[in-house]
């Protein structure tokens, strides 16, 4: 995800920051002086997705099914999914254009 300051953060880290109950304004992990509100929208970093598609050394485990490697990236939820999560993705309802294949080694 791309923050308003231009720095980047992964979706899971951004969600953890947003879900923090003690803070209303969030700060950039690279520069604490850059702040933003929890309700703000963020752009998906398409350059990172392109990089992941072109490189076959990525071995990221699924957050839900920790024995499975990620297989797809969901454009609607901005999350990486294993094959099981891809089949269960209720946001996309099996729309092929909603998921981007991520190569694995």
TrEMBL record:
It comes from the Eukaryota. The keyword Lipid metabolism does not apply. InterPro entries: Znf_RING/FYVE/PHD (IPR013083), Znf_RING_CS (IPR017907). Transmembrane segments: none annotated. One of its GO terms (molecular function) is zinc ion binding. Keywords: Metal-binding, Zinc, Zinc-finger. The keyword Zinc-finger applies. This is RING-type domain-containing protein.
């Amino acid at each position: 995800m791309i923050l308003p300051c231009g720095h980047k953060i992964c979706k899971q880290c951004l969600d953890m920051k947003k879900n923090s109950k003690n803070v209303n304004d969030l700060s950039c992990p690279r520069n604490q002086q850059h702040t933003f509100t929890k309700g703000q929208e963020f752009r998906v970093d398409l350059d990172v997705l392109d990089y992941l598609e072109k490189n076959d050394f990525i071995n990221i485990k699924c957050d839900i099914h920790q024995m499975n490697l990620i297989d797809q990236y969901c454009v609607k939820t901005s999350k990486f999914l294993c094959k099981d999560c891809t089949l269960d993705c209720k946001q996309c309802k099996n729309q092929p254009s909603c998921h981007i294949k991520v190569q694995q080694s």
